[in-house]
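Good morning C.,

I know you're traveling, so I'll keep this short. The sequence:
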Amino acid sequence: MCGDDTKPLTREHALPTWTAGRIPGDGPWTVRLGEGNNAPDGQREDAKLSVVTRTLCDECRSVLNDLEEWAQRNLGQMMDASTDRPIAATPRAQRYAASWAVKTVMMVDLCVPTSVVPQGVRERFFRERAPSDDALVWWAALSDMEPAYWFRRRLITFEQGHSAVYAGLKVGHLGFVVAVRLSEASLELVRLGRMLDGFQPIHGPTLPHAAWPPEARLIDFRQFDDELNTMFAARVQPNGVEPGDAADGSAQ
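The tokens, ready to paste straight into the viewer:
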């Protein structure tokens, strides 16, 4: 995260282990990895949730610990839908929730083949302790618990040659979409964000007062997946490269 490659790195859980306590059920975890909508490249069963990557030094971990502790206190009831009343999200809460989503996307991206998040984006997040002005984040309340976890991301190049990384992340009933522009693609990000029906922005240039669930309604996982696929496919003109050649990957 910090970019200092002289420090020793340790294994870190990309999907925090505390989130497993918010997922009902017993028995082993089934983990599938795949590219795009193709059949899984691999499947395994784990006795416990274990999605790890060797990416953090001691300083990076200490910076992220406070964020993780906040998420555990405040996002858990959204993940397991243990409350049936709307939750008001203050600007501070929106900022922390967006930061946790971006951090988790960057960590899981390292666990999927062909990482698409540039190292500079990780280092900027570490320096600023929050998503940069180049990022947009939305959240949604999902009616489906399965799959318990789901992740997909793609590097998109627009008609003008601008590029951005888009990612979808699901933990229980809580869904996020994260977009980080890598060049002058701000208008494209906003336009594509308008395609997300049932999602609410929690990080970006203009934010409404947020609440959980957004718009007091739930969306199902199929809608979440379909909307993300539509977003990925929209306006992709990679200067002679077929859209299917763009870096893509998913895990659940």
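Safe travels,
E.
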